[in-house]
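Good day; I would like, with your permission, to put a structural problem before you. A protein sequence and the structure tokens that stand for its backbone fold form the material at issue. Thank you for your consideration; the sequence and its tokens are set out here:
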Amino acid sequence: MNSESLSEVHSSVRTDKKGWRKVLAFLGPAYLVSVGYMDPGNWATDIAGGSEFGYKLIWVLLMSNIMALLLQSLSARLGIVKGLDLAQASKNAYPKWANIPLYILAEIAIAACDLAEIVGMAIGLSLLFDLPLIWGVSITALDTFLLLFLLKRGMRVMEVFIISLVFIIGVSFIIQMVIVAPVYGDVVKGFVPSDLGGNALYLAIGIIGATVMPHNLYLHSSLVQTRKIDRSFQGLKKAIKYNFIDTAIALNMAFFVNAAILVLAAAAFYTNGFYNVAEIQDASLLLENLFGNVAPTFFAIALIAAGQSSTITGTLAGQIVMEGHLNLRIQPWLRRLITRLLAIAPALFTIIYFGEEALGSLLILSQVVLSLQLGFAVIPLIHFNSDKKMMGEFAIKPWVKGLAWLIAAIIVYLNITLVIDEITSWAVNSGDNKVYIYTIVIPIAVACLALLVYVFIYPFLKKNEQNEQTETNHLPHGKAEDFSEGKMIEYKHIGITIDFSGNDQLVIQNALKQGGKSATYIFIHVVESAAARYLGKNTLDNETQLDIDNLKQYQEMLEELGYKTEQKIGFGSAPTEIVKIVQESKIDMLVMGAHGHKGLKDLVFGTTLDVVRHKVSIPILIIS
């Protein structure tokens, strides 16, 4: 099993080029990250801020972009220097008991982020094609297979696809800027910091919380490892520099999009007296009323592109978190489908039981969940980059560390404030359901806060410990163990699965090499006909008799050559019957051929091999 982060595309992009080609070789990962900074969650806060306060909050966008630039560059540095993503590093640094809630929180945050993208894309489809939201939400499940296709085509193809979507978003907003025609002198004044109070402070918190997303920190530390780099000091130094350039360009593009959304809302709504536009659908309707059909059309196109690009990167982050925290790898298509279903389920539930108008509240809830998890990604990231034993000469300088901790403190404080405000609001408006707030919501929030404090303090407590285990923890799977040759293993009862698929001779030949003439060879075949599934051993159909006769032929051939053989017939489910025969016959080694079907059929029927290897505790030799 590969230990690399996103092993299917790890070190798949070569960087051994010169001049501007070398710079271009490193460009890409940050663009995949940047789409999370222009997702529908950002749209909601930017539209609300621009419609209520005009251009006043642009400086907040700029400040949050600078915060994101520093944190994303730290994430990239960790991946480049240590070859670990943030989830892997957290797994190695914190006790096992702490990794379980850290994983659960990260998974919930990714599902919440994916939820915002699904809702945003469904709204975009509804605005553009007048498609009911419930159908739009359902259609988003299909992009799971789009992601699988893109990964198979290679990392560069995926990056080009995402950059194309980002380009569509940018062009859409440039066209809308021309249509709306803001006063650019007033836009420039918005970059001057101003006092924040009341709802302006609340929206500023929302903008920062929606901008710096935890899943992007996991994602960036993994994506930079798709580049095959020189691991020398100078090679690592150049890789960090080129990735910082990539990050600066990509996040500034994201800042342009977010600023464009806010400016669009300010010029279209604030200046025309519409001060409380919070819903994305309302924004599109007002654009149509004020400027005709062109502006809302490009608005919807940009929204669909933002939702699609963000869902792709969100599902990648889900894979990284599962593999990093739990060291658990499942089929990529299944991992992405799980992430998508976790997000689709609450969206469909909300539409069916509360109506389409409740999706706006669901978007807000998703941002609160994201806020709750952010500190659990930011704090470990700063700890790892500050650790000289871990990062060596690439540990961040004291002034960078101080700035990073200041940013972390601001983000955590603002996000905790946002969570407290939301819980207070729920308590006030919950009526008879207040008991759930006090018995479920508040205890969970307090427990999360306690874990956050632990995540911050623990590295300081362990800082002075220097032992072999600490060094080993910096590796994904620890060190190699001491090896001794031991006694020669002799297999006495070797099972051979036979499926008459044309691969039998190769399977039998390999089995004979394992035990020679001293072992007993047990031919195993399972009849999977409909009759066999219902009648079991009482099945006497033609297929069963032919299978028994064919097995006897194999037996006779081997016995003539001086080998000892037996045969066992199973009926019904192949994996279940093979496991049963292995246990009853005391087989100590199993030789199996690759399954007779591949590709799509494996998805439908499953693979016998995968099931058997998880249910038996003996060595299995697979012949393909």
